[in-house]
Amino acid sequence: MLKNPNQKVIKRMARNALKVNRRKTITLFLAVLLSSFLVFTIFTVGDSYFRLQKIQNIRMSGAEFDAIMYGVTDEQRQMCENNPNIALTGTVGVCGWVEKTDRDSTPSVGLIWADDGYWTQMMEPVREKLEGRYPIALDEIMVTKSALKECGYEDLDVGDTLAMSYGTHEGIFTGTFRICGIWDGYGPKKQFYVSKEFYDQSGWKLSQAASGRYFMDFKQKIMTKEELALEVIARLKKEYPDAGCTLDYDQAWKLLVSVRLAAQCTDARVNVVVEDLYAKSHFRKQYFSVSSMRSFFLSTPITRLWPQISDGHGGSIYIRLKKQSFYDVLDDVQHCRSDLGIVFLMKSHSNRITRLCSVKDLDYHLLGESHISIVTRADHPILQAQETVPVEDRMTDYPYVIAENHENFGRFYDDDSESISQLFQSPPKCIISINDSAASQDIVAQSDAFFISSTRWQHPQHYHFSSVPLKGEDSILAHYYVTKKGQTPHPLTAPYVEELKKMFHGL
Predict the structure, then answer these.
(1) Range in 69-78, 220-229, 247-256, 418-427 with the lowest mean pLDDT
(2) 317 bridge partner residues
(3) pTM score, two decimals?
(4) Of the four listed, 147, 171, 274, 277, which is most buried by Cβ atoms within 10 Å?
């Protein structure tokens, strides 16, 4: 077979072509090299990012899941379990709280039940240490070290017993539980895990939004831009919980202007510049907003401050007074919809204001205390009777009027709890809920019904009511005023608070 002599010719032509187009060849080679490097970097860094993001999410939430639903029915659960895009499901039931122990009267510990899917599989990646096992019997609990410390029992171990008073949907009970396990891992720590039998007897149902938690883990792990943004925001808040704004502002539009200016210089310099800028502004209308759980705390200080309001401002001022629920007041102040918030809660639960204000980045200060009062017409038969039984225990035979849902004391923290579970031994035989305070007063004035007030009742002159303060620690309310942490207070905030303090001295 004849040998092909063309190879030498081809090699010589290739060398000559490389010499002639050397710059082009080098550029092409570098382009291929850089492209390969970029592709490798993108895939490597991207994969590392998503793996780290997954780990961070697991550590923050205490379990591996993608979505959570509240109050899921059996039909909805069946649909999710049959969905091919859902790889794993788990169920958690919130069934109560620790009321008190022998060593701590105000522990902040919840009672939680978790099914096998959640505890065994979803929480598997975050269980660092586990001594013992998950509770099976009615009188068994699994604890965390943080929850034990909250209850004042840091020295207990697996096999020891814990006596406590606890609350469920059915009421307040006392019992002794054996510690069958101690778990310490990522996620919420201040909670005790109970058995399925305990949850079934608590009176709660998984279909109730306040109790049922349904977790899902999807097969596809692709996040949208919106989901990614929310995740970034959540992580920033967790990483920098005390981050405040150093810009001085009392209105939203001023903050917008200051932020734009802050891109060119320091915040301190912006605060100096805008002072004269805002003084020269044609927009002279000023806003002052207050949110409160009682209208009594809204109107009275304003009427006493009227001379100061009318003389102390060159332009017009717009004052907004809003009666809101407990959580709505905190949200208004948190999102700068109100300059000042006024809330109250039972003194025995006063530790919750600390936790809530810390989460929402708020400052709170005690205004004073008051006793919850029962309000009836002046000639109510209960006031005429000479009985040794406390009046709150004798009122259960009379209609109870919920004058305002905002003053429904049991709804401060849990939407499905009974409104008067902590005030009466047994609920009244008749409960009337109405959102018109004037109509509720008419009902009480013309019948044997009663309602509950956060202070001694301040009534109009044409009503003849009697106000009877309840006795006991559960009837004491602590009143607070709340402001946004790090925000420059409105000029009317300080005098408004002073008038509030004077009111409490007179109650």
Answers:
(1) 418-427
(2) 286
(3) 0.44
(4) 147
pLDDT in the model for residue 406:
41
Query: Rounded distance, CA 344 to CA 455, Å?
Result: 11
pLDDT of 311 over the 70 cut: no
The CATH number assigned to the domain with range 284-369+481-506 reads 3.40.190.10
Q: Write out the two tokens for 329.
A: 């007041």
Q: How far apart are CA 170 and CA 425, in angstroms?
A: 12
Burial string for 110-147 (b: 16+ CB within 10 Å, else e) reads: bbbbbbebbbebbbeebbeeeebebbeeeebbbbbeeb
Q: pLDDT per residue over 98-113, tens digit each?
A: 999 988 888 889 999 9
- CATH T-level topology, domain 373-469: D-Maltodextrin-Binding Protein; domain 2 (3.40.190)
Cα dist. 69→172, 234, 304 in Å? 28, 19, 48
Decide whether 284-369+481-506 matches 373-469 in CATH topology.
yes
Residue 370 to residue 292: CA distance in whole angstroms: 16
Around Cβ 448, how many Cβ atoms within 10 Å? 15
70: phi then psi, degrees, rounded to nearest 5: -110, 140
Q: Are 338 and 298 in contact (CB under 8 A)?
A: no
Of 175 and 218, the one with more pLDDT = 175
Can you say whether residue 486 is alpha, beta or left, with left for phi > 0 and alpha for psi between -120 and 50 degrees? left
